[in-house]
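Sequence, structure tokens reproduced for absentees:
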Amino acid sequence: MVYVAGLDFGTSGARLVVMDQAQQILAEARVGFTSTERSGADVWIQALEALLKQVEPGVRSQLSAIAINGTSATVLLCDDRGQSVTEPLLYNDDRGQAYCPPIAEIAPPGSPARSATSSLVKLLWWHAHLSPETRPQARYFLHQADWLAAQLHGDFGRSDYHNALKLGYDVGTLTYPDWLWQLLEAAGAERWLPQVQAPGTSFGRVTAAASDRYGLSRDCIVVAGTTDSIAAFLASGAQAPGDAVTSLGSTLVIKLLSHQRVEDSRYGIYSHRLGDLWLVGGASNTGGAVLRQYFTDDELQILSQQIDGDRPSKLDYYPLPRPGERFPINDPKLPPRLAPRPSDPADFLQGLLEGMARIEALGYERLIALGATPPTRIFTAGGGAQNSTWAKIRQRWLPAPVVTAGSTEAAIGTAKLALQGFAHSQTTSAESQLKLRLGPK
């Protein structure tokens, strides 16, 4: 029997799913982060251990493959032993926006590396702001999923091309482009770049130390992972061009499977490679993080039941947790629009939900206008998928039917990626053995 694990590291917590070869779920685990813990690398390690230790030892020791996803453009710098030398910068950190102009002068117009929150912007900011004591220690620039996976396989300096997209990696040619080398060599930061491989391929087996620490088989492989929103897409059941997934978590993320690659940094739109197709979309800063600034989970549930989702309000909000937006408007200084505020909290909540629905609709409108395959159905993932009132409001605005995702757990999508990686490793191993038996031509 083949068992695999998928781990999802989000903004508010981490989750794990173990499934077998038939994609039957055998175990689940989760840990939460407090608001002060979310950015600490030591917290990520503690969560990794806590998740694995929640799996029954007999199952854990039989895992054949593990894959990890993380939030896109959440990054850190580490030394050659994998020790973090900086506090991580989170997905929405835009402190390096002053480096956008030099990137814009040299990067292609549609590159997501031009965004104020991109991995590349963060790399350049770090290169300019590291202390003289820290700079000699810095060796690898890694994304959250890269660094966590390396805790298991031990080969730091490896990434996948989903996470590396916002670093400037060209997913069309599967290389770092010349313009990126030129930019980083001029800054003296090119040595930080990780090696990149396809999501769902093997990084290698777990180390002896990881095997002992976490109770894993030494034959367990670690599979190149992905981002949290792509993992949610893989979990949803979407599979045909025109299938789309909106992830309603702390942020609002759109992914649409398209024949056509679409990229436009003016709107924060970019494309991930997914086999022979393209996963186009973007990530807005609107979402659950805004709602939690005003309401508890219990209040959201109670007030949502008081809203008539078929009757629109007259409120015109652009809900953001703070100034700055990535998609479908790419403006690091865009202010939230949350006035006027009605006295009835249910009316205020309705205005917020309608504002988010309009942002989502504008996102799909942008994608279609730029040539993406029009959506035929929109799956919903993330915590917001459970809110039926929000679903009714969204359906008024969206260009295709809203349907319930097969799963809303990104950890399930990552477990599917681990299954893919295990199958790929078995095929590769069989091919290698065949070549050994046949000998050279």
Q: What stands out?
A: The first helix runs from residue 41 to 53. Residues 393 and 415 are 32 Å apart (CA to CA). The radius of gyration is 22 Å.
